[in-house]
Request: fold
Amino acid sequence: MAGEAGNLMKNKIEERPVRVKIDNVIKKYNGRNGEMVALNGVSLDIHDNEFICVVGPSGCGKSTLLNIIAGLLEPTEGKVYCDGKEVTGTGTERGVVFQQYALFPWLTVRKNVMFALEMRGIKGKEAKEKAMEYLEMVDLGKFADSYPKELSGGMKQRVAIARAYAAEPDVLLMDEPFGALDAQTRTQLQTELLETWEKHNKTCFFITHDVDEAIILAQRVVIMSARPGRIKEIVDINIPYPRTQETKMTQEFIDVKNHIWRQVYQEYLEVRK
Ligand SMILES: Nc1ncnc2c1ncn2[C@@H]1O[C@H](COP(=O)(O)OP(=O)(O)OP(=O)(O)O)[C@@H](O)[C@H]1O
Ligand SMILES: [Mg+2]
Reply:
């Protein structure tokens, strides 16, 4: 029965239009030790309102792939399309939360978030109020007038998340956004992200090292192989939403976690060879 429901869910995803098409992307870097292949032929269709998580060993090219989708990096070969148009740079429909928070140090927390709103043409009092709403979402209302340097790493990351939400992109590209957070805050932000995703019809591409997090969030988990990065396997997560802490106790969760963990571990061993 569970399998049947899962298939229905999967069919529904595949019937939806493709928001982001990654077509045979190769990325080579010219590093200190000559040319290095970071991505070696990655293809993936990300459908409208889909939630994808990407896992894989450190250095396998996850951030590289995200930056290419964001339009911040150019592929060496292959192409990325968003809504059928080739990606040649950044676009307001694609919002990014970077692996390392990228805040404007000269602006207060509130003004950092207001920046994203002003980019959307929201100004003055409305921008100020909306910025507060997004800051409350990440539990930082009390720090609106602080500067980034006065915050901890996790708090800065939450400001970056609030700013990304405030930009209201259709496609959210998130690079280990909750990596620096304590377990409670992380759980809270996972729940809020899932609510935002469902309510506002977002398409999410989310990188994480945490297999539990990937399974709690995603409809499909993409496992990447050790460098040069390729897609090793795509695992459908057919567990119905809302997913909670209790979900982690279910046999279905444990089975899929064991499977993904083993696959990632194999790749980790490859890196160490
Ligand atoms: N600008 C660059 N110049 C040269 N090499 C780079 C550059 N950026 C990344 N690389 C290399 O490309 C490979 C992939 O890097 P990337 O940051 O995409 O990995 P990742 O999967 O995001 O790793 P992590 O999980 O540690 O964040 C690494 O070997 C890295 O050293
Ligand atoms: Mg990375």
Q: What stands out?
A: The mean pLDDT is 93. Strands lie at 18-31, 34-47, 51-55, 77-82, 85-86, 94-97, 171-175, 203-207, 220-224, 231-236. The chain has eight helices and ten strands.
